[in-house]
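Tip: read the tokens left to right.
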């Protein structure tokens, strides 16, 4: 496990990449996408940088489109890739619920709730027959009929966070409850509903990480493709047929392993990817081991954030530690909020 001081350096590095207006890009001066920005904001909350996390969430809420979507890329606050993706529309719900669990800040949750609601309403409008959710909106505003397994598994978690937030706000959303039930069934029982991207490790572990596949089925799923994706001592490949391990995927795999009841294996993966760490606490995105080369030549906030979230989850340091590792931590639709409360300190402990 990483020491407290190491994690605080990583959180400080993430904070240093943030723009003065709250935007939280991949790295200073780089692109920003809503999903990765939320992930980085969650890491800031874990490290006690609550004001910076609030600023990142407010930046996103202020730039939400009227239909509940966001652009898929921004630079300097300007939309540079206008496509509206469903996983971007939904992920603020995870960030808002995570923030509540860490800080107990009801004012922020109330402030973000309209944006969360618009985003998840857009997600439910993009649901396809059979339960899967289209990956993006077409130019005419209709959902693309292609569904991506990783994105849908992330949306399964986002919708459940939205249901929990709705209970907290006393604003029930029965359409979300129905949508997440149908989506979970599709994720577990209808692989043909999703585009074939089985080369990518995220499609392997994300149904476990998102909470749709649990228990023995989760362990079986992770065991089935372990040798395709895991490189001993280095971490997880991003793509099965490429000699390239990536830090974020390795940390997400660690979270999925913990969710499947395999914490020792999770710790092993978190340790394995530390070769990507720099002394300032930042992390390279990936490593092409066949060439002994960092690639791409970038250190990203979302890779660093994945490390912080995995370390928090495995150490149980904050009130949000169980969000990614305990599928039962989020309520089933209609059952109310979990019986565990937000953490009081919201900081990394040794």
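Filled-in amino acids:
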């Amino acid at each position: 496990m990483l020491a407290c001081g190491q994690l605080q350096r990583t959180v400080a590095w993430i904070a240093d990449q943030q723009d003065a207006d709250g935007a939280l890009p991949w790295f200073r001066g780089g692109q920003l996408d809503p999903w990765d920005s939320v992930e980085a904001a969650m890491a800031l909350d874990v490290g006690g940088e609550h004001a910076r996390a609030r600023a990142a969430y407010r930046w996103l809420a202020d730039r939400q489109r009227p239909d509940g979507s966001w652009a898929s890329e921004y630079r300097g606050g300007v939309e540079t890739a206008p496509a509206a993706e469903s996983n971007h529309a939904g992920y603020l719900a995870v960030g808002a619920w995570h923030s509540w669990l860490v800080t107990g800040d009801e004012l922020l949750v109330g402030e973000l709730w309209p944006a969360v609601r618009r985003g998840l309403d857009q997600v439910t409008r993009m649901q396809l027959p059979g339960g899967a959710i289209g990956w993006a909106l077409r130019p005419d505003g209709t959902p693309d009929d292609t569904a991506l397994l990783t994105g849908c598994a992330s949306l399964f978690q986002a919708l459940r966070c939205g249901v929990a937030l709705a209970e907290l706000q006393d604003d029930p959303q029965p359409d979300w409850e129905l949508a997440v039930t149908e989506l979970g069934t599709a994720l577990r029982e209808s692989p043909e509903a999703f585009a074939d991207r089985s080369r990518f490790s995220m499609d392997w572990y994300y149904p476990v990480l998102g909470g749709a596949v649990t228990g023995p089925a989760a362990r079986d799923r992770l065991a089935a493709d372990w040798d395709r994706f895991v490189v001993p001592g280095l971490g997880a490949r991003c793509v099965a047929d490429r000699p390239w391990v990536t830090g974020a995927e390795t940390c997400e795999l660690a979270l999925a392993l913990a969710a499947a009841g395999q914490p020792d294996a999770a710790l092993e993966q978190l340790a394995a990817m530390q070769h990507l760490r720099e002394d300032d606490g930042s992390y390279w995105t990936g490593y092409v081991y066949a060439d002994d080369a960092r690639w791409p030549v970038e250190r990203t906030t979302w890779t660093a954030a994945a490390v912080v979230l995995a370390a928090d989850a495995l150490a149980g340091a904050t009130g949000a530690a169980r969000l990614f590792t305990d599928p039962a931590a989020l309520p089933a639709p209609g059952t109310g909020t979990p019986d565990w409360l937000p953490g009081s300190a919201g900081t990394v402990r040794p």
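The domain at 4-315 is CATH 1.50.10.10 (Glycosyltransferase). The two ends are 10 Å apart (CA to CA).
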